[in-house]
Amino acid sequence: MNRTFDDLVEEAESVSVDGWDFSWLDGRATEARPSWGYARLLAGRMATAEAALDIETGGGEILAGVPKLPPITVATESWPPNLALAARRLRPRGAALVADDERPRLPFRADTFDLVVSRHPVHTWWAEIARILRPGGTYFSQQVGPRSVVELSEYFLGPLDGSSRDPEKARAAAEQAGLTVTDLRAESLRMEFRDIGAVIYFLRKVIWTVPDFSVGRYRKELRELHERIQEDGPFVAHSTRFLIEARA
Fold first, then answer.
1. Cis ω on the peptide bond leading into residue 247 (within 30° of 0)?
2. What proportion of the chain, given as a percentage, has pLDDT over 70?
3. Does residue 1 have a pLDDT over 90?
4. Which residues form a coiled coil (predicted)?
């Protein structure tokens, strides 16, 4: 039996959205994964590094899954709920966790790390990354690309202008900071939202998709989308991702 709109809303509003674990969406939403396999590539780079930094680690989910961490491993995070999750995951692995607002300046000496990584950073402070990398060191990152999930954003907000999250802009900024880009790839990935609870959970968690989102503010639009999903099937959107690697 189909669950009611009110039931789905109540459930999605009450669940925790701390950290970057999206397992609550299993069976309710899907998103294709980039072909390059960030976690696998990350594990290979971590295995040979001496000192590594993970910027914006979230709840430490990705870093904690690396089989072999470098002798010196540090992670930064700014959001208090994520800090608590990351501490529980990373400290047993011997990784240090630093509470930081993740804006310049990063609280590390120059030439400290031979590997700096970040998955889906809000901003990439290229000059700071270049400063803290050792000569020959590497920055490795998977980032949100241009107009990611724009179909969902525009459903609530109307037509939007272009995005600054352009891979070629990232290349130019890295090179301006003195880094050499050695790899740059981009993909568009299909997403499906199968019920309105999945939409609400996603918008509560990925807050930049609809920056002013709340159920109260958008209840009319949510109800209309709920009816549309029930009649026509999953709401389809596309996430965009790019992989960038640069050397000092």
1. no
2. 100
3. no
4. none
Provide the CATH number for the domain around residue 45.
3.40.50.150
Helix axes 219-232, 150-157, angle to 10 degrees: 130
> How many domains does the chain divide into?
1
Owning domain of residue 86 = 5-247
Indicate whether 80 pLDDT > 70: yes
CA dist 187 and 148 (Å) reads 10
How far is it, in rounded angstroms, from Cα 141 to Cα 52? 13
Q: Sheet harboring 113-119: ordered strands across?
A: 29-31, 180-193, 235-247, 133-144, 113-119, 51-54, 72-77, 96-99
Q: Which residues contact 26 (CB under 8 A, 6 or more apart)?
A: none
Residue type at 79 in one-letter notation: W
Residue 232 in this model has a pLDDT that exceeds 60: yes
The 10s digit of each residue's pLDDT in 173-222 is 999 999 999 999 999 999 999 999 999 999 999 999 999 999 999 999 99
